[in-house]
Amino acid sequence: MSERIYNFNPGPAALPLPVLEEMQRELLNFRGSGMSIMEISHRSEWFNAVIDDAVARVKRLLGLDERYHVLFLQGGASLQFCMVPMNLAVSGKALEYVDTGTWSTKAIKEARIQGRQVRVIASSEDREFTYIPKGFQVGADAAYLHLTSNNTIRGTQWADFPDAGGVPIVCDMSSDIFSRVFDPKPFGLIYAGAQKNAGPAGVTLVILRSDLLDRVPKDLPTMLKYSTFVDKDSRFNTPPTVAIYVVGLVLKWLEETVGGVAAMEMVNRRKADVIYGYLDSQDFYRGTAEPGSRSKMNVTFRLPTPDLEKAFIAASQQAGLGGLKGHRSVGGCRASIYNAMPVAGVEALVQFMTEFARKNG
Q1: 18-257 is a CATH 3.30.465.10 domain
Q2: Looking at CB atoms within 10 Å, which of 26, 32, 244, 288 has the fewest?
Q3: What is the pLDDT of residues 25-59, one digit of tens each?
Q4: Where are the domains of the chain?
């Protein structure tokens, strides 16, 4: 296929076309350096400008004040599952988690491996993680409350974040950061693998409130301490320079072309309304997340039979709609409609779904 398809992959995911085009233009001679972005030093004036711009855009887009440090690390969100309890645990205090499936489950496991006092205060496992729990209490003695804002596999998302009563919230926002407006003040730490909504694979965004630096144990290995990367502006060692550069371009697109996070949220609501409106209007496809907990980033659904799902995925690829296969752990189908997915892509998907149902229903 010579033309670009609509890419519904869950991550690595679609990047905005203007970002790809700017990367293409700058690839051989990055901003007059005579070198590719892949060749410049991470301690050069050119890269200083790249990372400083990316940090500044993160702060503006999310409304972060001077208390927050913006870091670019490696190891994905999976490394943060263990770094968070290593750095932020407090002696005599429980680490509280809400288990909404897969990624939060893995985070809980990593904290328990370290022998921490882990307290799971709510879980949606009783209904196969198809909803977001409500009505739980956060312990006043908790060191932090850990949430996963969006479950890419089950297609659920926190519509509103819970009141933690002053306990710092730690949140894995890998799949919905920059997709909607939220108040950052209750959050002590936010982490996000970039490869879904912020850039390419290979870099992890970590946003850390400065008061939590006092918790970092001095006897942790150097590369596992948040303070190491705060002190060295994410450049204790060679960072993933190209990935950080692309994150900066994505944030530039979001800020200057889209108009910021509030404008992006409106587009994302429109996309979600288009596809969920269609799912609710017929009975050939069945959404898997409970309506009050549906994700605006990952729309999960089933067809009447596994054979029809295989046929649907194959035919959609031929129609220029890629990445619609559900996660291997649950099967079914999934449309990831992150920031870079245009409304036209979701409309094309609904049109294809309508025709496929007409032929196979």
Answers
A1: no
A2: 32
A3: 999 999 999 999 999 999 999 999 999 999 999 99
A4: 18-257, 260-360
- The fold adopted by the segment(s) 260-360 is Aspartate Aminotransferase, domain 1 (3.90.1150)
Given a cut of 60, is residue 1 above it in pLDDT? no
Helix (H) or strand (E) holding 207: strand 204-209
Task: Please state, in angstroms and rounded to a whole number, the distance separating the CA atoms of residues 314 and 322.
Answer: 9
> Hey, which residues does 299 pair with through a beta bridge?
335
pTM score, whole prediction: 0.97
C-alpha 16/C-alpha 342 separation (Å) is 9
Burial class (CB in 10 A: 0-12, 13-18, 19+), 350: middle
pLDDT in tens, 233-252: 999 999 999 999 999 999 99
- Active site members: 103, 172, 196
Q: Are 144 and 96 in contact (CB under 8 A)?
A: yes
| pLDDT at residue 6 greater than cutoff 80 | yes
The answer to whether residue 298 scores a pLDDT higher than 80 is yes
Secondary structure (3-state) at 281:
coil
